[in-house]
């Protein structure tokens, strides 16, 4: 069964492109443009994986992940934090994997396989 | 530390070298500003440089992009800049994109997002990159103006300073939003002839006296640097009484006699003469003459490199190589460049080495550095004035185009009236022999010998002989022997 993924990113273009590429591979992809909307999306549409950007308006990626970890319904969902500024990632950010932008599709798929522990990606 | 003016208005310094001087102190805390310019003019670098500076000064800053431009790409470019300090991005700088917010919720949603981000992170400096997108999404011109007005309300409440970057091709023209903001800054990259020249103009600045007009700008891996035009800068306050300064003797007996002891201290002199007549020699002798009495000197030249000058000095016994402790040699390539950069370096040397005598060898070559050659007169006037205020006695040389011409044509309009003193050096042909002549055409507020003397370049430097009395019309270079 293909994974369902939530991509949270404020940046125009990148999230849409990644969503399209994952969609073409058969993934079920949802999009949100900030952490607050990402959490709202989880409420209505549970997913197998969350990929979030670091810096976003309203609520940033690490804050969204902290709230997920604090909520038993979402605490076990694997997470990937992506950023062009790895130096800016807070030490207490509870992500499972860090993906530094720019990245290729191969890197993304490998990271997804690693955090979801799936070999059928 | 915050700077305030007499009314208590607080300035935010930008950290961009030269920019605060042009702005009249910096940006006003809580002000809203527009930076306009075509793509590639340096807006994004300017915005980021200021963000990093403010973050380094302790402000929380926010960089919001509204363009379909990747943060990833922008940050990869910024990593090559010296102002980029990644550690600040963890705590003091946030990069967010609000294009999707603008697209989905319009101007109201964008305002809410900016307001909330400012409150959440206690932000005091915001760069909004892509004002054109706001205008495009505004249902009407009135809505766009309302957006700017509401942004000002937010800054009024939060004391946050906002810089809006606008990639417009209409820079230079009046825009309705210009009336609403606290300042408008225009960046340009224009081509003059074959030269590309970056510039910055502060079109409007509320509440301060900015340096008006166009200033040169440079972008390097250090970021942006702006050079205020020397003509617009406030001069050094101290005005040294020239009469209190000692006369600047050349150490050339005949010449010092003509000058009644030397050039008046703190004055400026133009030595006019054709190529090869000995102007550089005169300048070097002026500097070694001063150094022999303990006065630090600076040579600024455009044609001969320091090693050539030292070789010339050895050949002609000027003793320059023995006075390197007091005489600095600065060579500037006679190629296209920024005239204000040359002036800046010269004044920095004057400051650093406490220069008392300066030889500026080649006002004519200096013109090659001028983006606008018509500025040469104004730059000369400002530089000469600034040097005089610092008590520097300056000898400028200026090449005359005619080697043996009948007329003396000063190649730069309007400089000779500004000069305190004028010295003319000429070749003259008499009985198939070339002679060199020197005369004083003008010395402001000082007596001098008006005669013409012959001089020679010897192994002991310049030697000025007695008055050259038997030849007429020497000044025109077309001499003939007077029948006895």
What is the overall pLDDT average of chain A?
93
Count of beta strands of chain B: 23
Coarse structural class of chain B = alpha/beta
Question: What's the oligomerization state?
Answer: heterodimer
Give the termini separation of chain A: 10 Å
Low-confidence stretches of chain A: none
Low-confidence stretches of chain B: none
Main beta-sheet strand count, sense and barrel state of chain B: 9 strands, mixed
Spatial strand arrangement across the major sheet of chain A: 2-1-3-4-5
Strands of the biggest beta sheet of chain B: in what spatial order?
6-5-7-8-4-9-10-11-12
| Backbone shape of chain B | elongated
Put simply, the count of helices of chain B is: 13
Report the β-strand fraction of chain B as a percent range: 25-35%
Shape descriptor of chain A = globular
Structural class of chain A: alpha/beta
Helix amount of chain A, in percent?
25-40%
Name the biggest interface.
Answer: A-B, 19 and 27 residues
Taking Cα atoms only, what radius of gyration of chain A do you get, to the nearest Å?
13 Å
Work out the helix count of chain A: 4
* SSE topology string of chain A: EHEHEHEEH
What layout of secondary structure does this protein have?
The complex is a heterodimer of chains A (121) and B (484).
Chain A lengths: L3 E5 L5 H11 L3 E5 L2 H10 L4 E5 L7 H10 L8 E5 L13 E4 L4 H12 L5
Parallel strand pairs in A: 1-2, 1-3, 3-4, 4-5
Chain B lengths: L2 E2 L5 E3 L6 H5 L3 E2 L3 E5 L6 H14 L4 E5 L5 H8 L7 H6 L1 E5 L1 H23 L3 E5 L1 H7 L3 H18 L2 E6 L16 E10 L2 E11 L8 E7 L2 E5 L25 H6 L9 E7 L4 H13 L5 E5 L4 H11 L10 E5 L7 H14 L4 E5 L1 H7 L6 H14 L3 E8 L20 E10 L2 E11 L8 E7 L2 E7 L3 E2 L7 E2 L3
Parallel strand pairs in B: 4-8, 4-9, 5-6, 5-7, 7-8, 13-17, 13-18, 14-15, 14-16, 16-17
Antiparallel strand pairs in B: 1-2, 2-3, 9-10, 10-11, 11-12, 18-19, 19-20, 20-21, 22-23
Helix pairs in contact in B: 5-7
Describe the structure.
The complex is a heterodimer of chains A (121) and B (484). By secondary structure, chain A is of the alpha/beta class. Chain A contains four helices and five strands; from the N terminus they run βαβαβαββα. Chain A has helices at 14-24, 35-44, 61-70, 105-116, and strands at 4-8, 28-32, 49-53, 79-83, 97-100. In chain A, helix 1 (14-24) links the parallel strand 1 (4-8) and strand 2 (28-32). The relative contact order of chain A is 0.17. The model of chain A has no long low-confidence stretch (mean pLDDT 93). Chain B has 484 residues and is an alpha/beta fold. Helices cover 30% and strands 28% of the residues of chain B. Chain B is built from 13 helices and 23 strands. In chain B, strands 6-5-7-8-4-9-10-11-12 form a nine-stranded mixed sheet, with helices on both faces. In chain B, helix 5 (99-121) runs parallel beside helix 7 (141-158).
């Amino acid at each position: 069964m293909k994974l369902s993924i939530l991509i949270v990113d404020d940046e125009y273009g990148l999230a849409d492109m990644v969503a399209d590429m994952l969609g073409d591979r058969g993934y079920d992809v949802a999009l949100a443009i900030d952490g607050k909307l990402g959490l709202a999306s989880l409420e209505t549409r549970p997913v197998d994986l969350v990929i979030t950007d670091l810096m976003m308006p309203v609520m940033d990626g690490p804050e969204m992940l902290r709230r997920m970890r604090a909520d038993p319904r979402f605490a076990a969902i694997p997470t990937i934090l992506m950023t062009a500024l790895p130096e800016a990632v807070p030490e207490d950010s509870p992500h499972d994997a860090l993906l530094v932008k720019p990245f290729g599709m191969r890197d993304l798929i490998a990271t997804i396989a690693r955090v979801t522990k799936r070999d059928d990606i | 530390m915050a700077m305030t003016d007499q009314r208590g208005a607080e300035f935010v310094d930008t950290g961009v070298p030269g920019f605060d001087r042009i702005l009249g102190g910096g940006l006003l805390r809580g002000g809203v500003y527009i930076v306009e310019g075509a793509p590639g003019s340096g807006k994004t670098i300017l915005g980021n440089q200021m963000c990093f500076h403010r973050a380094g000064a302790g402000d929380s800053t926010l960089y919001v992009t509204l363009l379909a431009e990747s943060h990833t790409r922008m940050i990869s470019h910024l990593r090559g800049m010296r102002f980029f300090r990644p550690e600040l991005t963890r705590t003091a700088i946030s990069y967010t994109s609000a294009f999707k917010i603008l697209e989905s919720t319009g101007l109201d949603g964008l305002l809410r997002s900016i307001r909330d981000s400012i409150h959440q992170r206690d932000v005091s400096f915001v760069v909004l990159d892509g004002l054109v997108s706001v205008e495009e999404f505004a249902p009407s011109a009135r809505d766009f103006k309302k957006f700017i007005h509401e942004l000002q309300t937010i800054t009024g409440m939060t004391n946050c300073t906002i810089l809006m970057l606008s990639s417009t091709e209409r820079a230079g023209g009046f825009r309705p939003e210009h009336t609403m903001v606290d300042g408008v800054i225009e960046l340009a990259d224009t081509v003059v002839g074959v030269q590309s020249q970056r510039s910055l103009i502060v079109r409007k600045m509320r509440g301060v006296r900015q340096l008006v007009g166009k200033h040169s700008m440079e972008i390097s891996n250090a970021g942006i640097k702006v050079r205020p035009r020397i003509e617009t800068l406030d001069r050094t306050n101290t005005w040294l009484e020239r009469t209190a300064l000692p006369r600047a003797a050349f150490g050339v007996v005949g010449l010092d006699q003509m000058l009644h002891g030397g050039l008046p201290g703190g004055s400026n002199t133009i030595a006019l003469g054709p190529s090869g007549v000995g102007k550089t020699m005169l300048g070097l002798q002026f500097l070694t003459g001063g150094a022999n009495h303990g006065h630090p000197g600076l040579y600024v030249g455009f044609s001969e490199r320091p090693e050539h000058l030292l070789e010339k000095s050895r050949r002609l016994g000027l003793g320059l190589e023995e006075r390197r402790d007091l005489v600095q040699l600065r060579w500037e390539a006679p190629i296209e460049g920024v005239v204000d950069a040359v002036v800046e370096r010269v004044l920095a040397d004057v400051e650093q080495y406490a220069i008392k005598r300066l030889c500026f060898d080649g006002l004519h070559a200096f013109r090659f550095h001028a983006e606008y050659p018509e500025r040469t007169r104004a730059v000369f006037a400002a530089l000469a004035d600034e040097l005089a205020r610092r008590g520097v006695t300056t000898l400028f040389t200026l090449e005359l185009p005619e080697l043996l011409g009948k007329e003396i044509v000063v190649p730069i309009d309007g400089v000779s009236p500004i000069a305190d003193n004028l010295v003319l050096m000429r070749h003259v042909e008499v009985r198939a022999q070339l002679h060199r002549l020197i005369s004083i055409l003008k010395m402001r507020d000082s007596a001098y010998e008006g005669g013409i003397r012959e001089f020679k370049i010897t192994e002991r430097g310049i030697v000025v002989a007695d008055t050259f009395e038997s030849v007429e019309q020497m000044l025109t270079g077309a001499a003939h022997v007077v029948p006895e």
